Amino acid sequence: MPKSRFAALLRLIDRGIETLFPGYFALVMATGILSISAHLLEMHGIALALLWVDVVAYVILLILFGVRLVRYFPRVLEDLQSPSLGPGFFTLVAATSVTGAQLHVVAGETTLPTILWGVGIGLWIVVMYSFLTAVIVRKQKPNLRFGISGAWLVMVVATQSVSLLGTLLAPDFTGGREVAIFFTLCMYLTGAMLYLTIITLIFYRFTFLALSTDHLTPAYWINMGAVAITTLAGATLILHEDAWGFLAELRPFLLGFTLFFWAAGTWWIPLLLILGFWRHVLEKYPLRYDPQYWSSVFPLGMYTAATYRLAVASGLDFLTNIPAYSIWVAYAAWVATALGLLHHLIASAIRA
Known about the structure:
By secondary structure, the chain is an all-alpha fold. The protein has helices at residues 3-18, 26-40, 44-71, 73-80, 90-107, 111-137, 144-147, 154-169, 177-208, 222-239, 245-249, 251-282, 294-314, 321-351. Helix 2 (26-40) packs parallel to helix 5.
């Protein structure tokens, strides 16, 4: 490769790191939950293959994010304080916890997932309170039309991912098991509170404020994904009720609340499909690669895993018919988005 060509490629990589989309860890979230879904449906070869893809993607994105944090810290800080870009940092929290859950469920690991859980809790504290403090105290604030989007619901996903991983790990703890499950229960309820708060604003924005095709981004699929992971976290608590007697006492509440969120997530799917048809078919908005599409792949995989776990936790066996089909929709979305990413990277390298 000529030196000029190599230098141009290095500049392209550096520019990519400087402008790295904060929500890119949704790629890891989407791949991780698809791997877990495949494992639950006994597609073990696919689950293991996606595990390796996910670990590699997670490490690469961590390196890129670390370099960006060191070299372009003011830019990172600016993004964190942005109502539009700031919520993307919650994908780092969720990706860390989903990767831990994937390693535990698919690979049977305990030590590394426990470490990732601790890291996820720390990241959750830093990102949650840094972002909310920044948007609350800022002097110039956007109106609701431009200030909120489906991306805000990633804070729900991050919260429930910490709850999910902790509940999976708690039975293996030799000490502090009850404290750990109490914490995951509180995180589950906190995530539920955040969803009910944020989705109210989003629904108001949908129905009473003008919505252009530019603003109807794939991130709005998190409207469904956030309640899907809430369903999974709740079902996982129910399935681990033997680990703490207090959970058994809460079973009717948890089951009803979890079914409520599953129903809400199911309700969103037709509406989101209709809005996608309006955007791309009726309004002819171009269908091209956008890193936010990973935020639409994740909910499809999460809905599959959540429905399966809910069926097991509730005894509603007929619900298992849904993930048997939805997993293939999620696979198709993952492959299409992965090909879009590959094309984007190759085209960018050629242009350099």
